Amino acid sequence: MQFTFRVRPLGIAVITMAGLSGPRAGAEVNLPPGFEVVTFAVNDFGCTNADINDCGEIAFAQYQAYGGNHAEVFVYDNGQITRITDNNDRDVFPFINNRGQILWGRGLRNHGVTQLVLYDDGQETLIDEFKKSFNGWSLNNLGHIAWTRSQRWRRCPIKENMFIWDGLTTRQVTFDEEVSNVQASLNDHGDYAWARAWWCEQPWVSEIHLMVNGEDRTIPSPDPQNQGQKLSNAGWIVWRSSPYVVLWDGTQTRQLVEHGSGVPNLNDNGRVYIPVWDFIVQNKFQPWVLDIDDEGLRSFRIADVPWSFSRGYVNNWGEVSCIWYEDPPNSNWRGGVLLLRHIRSGDSEFDGDIDLLDYRILSEGMTGPVRTDGLCQNRFLDIDYDGDLDLADFSRLQNAFTGASP
What we know:
about 400 residues, mainly beta, four-stranded antiparallel β-sheet
């Protein structure tokens, strides 16, 4: 399967699960063609998440001690890890956009998160500080931020409302007194999706909402318990509607996976990451990738290990970053980050050949034998993975030259 990197229209063919290769228990590793898996940041205490942007930069928070209190933010870029924070606070759940800006939550002196911090070119900006904590935050490629303040969460009715910062000013966008508006997901068009929840109901219930051009839409769901939504620039939403993972394609909701799946994520081109419950290795989630297009759905299991996988993120090149733990049911949080990345063959466009256009891109982007941070899409021509574009890469490209495809 050759994956095509383009934004698809909102109206796609109906996804019919019958006869398609959906995730199944006991399946073997089946990587998408042209991809490989690497791991990094392995440690004894685990990570909170690992978000990847279109330049292949991965922002992750790594715990520094047992108990989940002290945590620091790091960035992985083309094999090199840079430490961003160095304090005794709890810096967790960072997100990185294509500008290299990083947003995370900070709990001072290892307490609960009461600050939202935006990091840009070495400078920290305090976006919001609120003593009663936050419930989810989102950063888009314009540097805009959406988040939820937990204004009353210790007793019913729980009151949580959303805010958006456009780079200059902050505005409140929900004003409910007895409802929780949480887990905002903001795309680059100014649209946002969130969960509107009644946590005090027995059992609790929630709806997925989508705001487009000032219009609030309730997205149909197969189950009354909905959470963990992600909105793409194509207008698609993927979320967990317990016990399903489902997709809204702009016109209708489709079931993707059943059987206790974890929090999903997706890119603008129809690639979805889902941690799926493994019925053979109990108490574990395994990482799957689904590719959805006009022809249907194809599924790939990207690891088969006795670990449990959690949150993951997908960039528009189809690369996936996700975190894993060795044995969380037994309080063994040793883990790290798994990266599904493109194999670097010299095909910088992923059009199936290595031709004169790849030569031109490499020659124009040549950095010499000195490591260069931020190679972005030119990283695919760093064939020897050493952080630069030099004559060694040019030689490998020449040896791999195929000419234009017929």
